[in-house]
Amino acid sequence: MGVAGFPLGANGLVAKAAETRLAVADGAAEIDMMIALGQALAGEWEAVTDEIAAVVEAARGRVVKVILETAALSPEEIERGCQAALDAEADFVKTSTGFHPAGGATVEAVARMRRAVGERLGVKASGGIRTPEQALRLLAAGADRIGTSAAAGWGSLVSREAPLLRDLLARVAAEAAS
């Protein structure tokens, strides 16, 4: 995996495209790019879309995940960020770098992202995910992938004795409904 504009996203279209080309040349199969958060907060969505498109083009067919930093965005801005990723033909939208002081992945943000992109893009929940229960809630909300550095201790999810994921997700859905 390679990164472009990580973690602040403020280095510009040319730099992000160059970082992407270097990562691809070094063998990266996936690129995580941070949007220009300042441009997003200023409502400059055309510039955000253009930057994502430049990274997608530079990635030459590799998977591109667009980090929105959802804790710093309003619900409407999250939807606009998802639309920018769709318009630029990215592969995933991602909640967080894990470094922003505003926080990381939430069930609400993941559900909003899933509604915004439908099945056209993947959704990756990342940032602040510490427990298997939290990961399951994010998967149930619509995440396709979980990014965490805490999974080593999640034997309840990844051991040979762990229940099937569909059974765990059914349990989470039942708990949420009650």
Describe the structure.
The chain is of the alpha/beta class and 178 residues long. The protein has helices at residues 13-25, 37-41, 45-59, 75-87, 107-117, 132-141, 155-158, 165-177; strands at residues 2-4, 30-34, 63-67, 92-94, 122-126, 145-147. Strands 1-2-3-4-5-6 form a six-stranded parallel beta sheet, with helices on one face. Helix 1 runs parallel beside helix 3. It is globular and about 50 Å long.
Residue share in β-strands: 5-15%
**Low-pLDDT ranges:** none
Please outline the major beta sheet: 6 strands, parallel
- Coarse morphology: globular
Order of helices and strands: EHEHHEHEHEHEHH
Q: How many individual helices?
A: 8
Structural class: alpha/beta
Helix fraction, binned, reads 40-55%
Strand order of the largest sheet: 1-2-3-4-5-6
How would you describe the oligomerization state of the chains in this entry? single chain
- pLDDT averaged residue by residue: 93
Give the tally of β-strands.
6
CA radius of gyration is 16 Å
How far is the first residue's CA from the last residue's CA? Answer: 40 Å
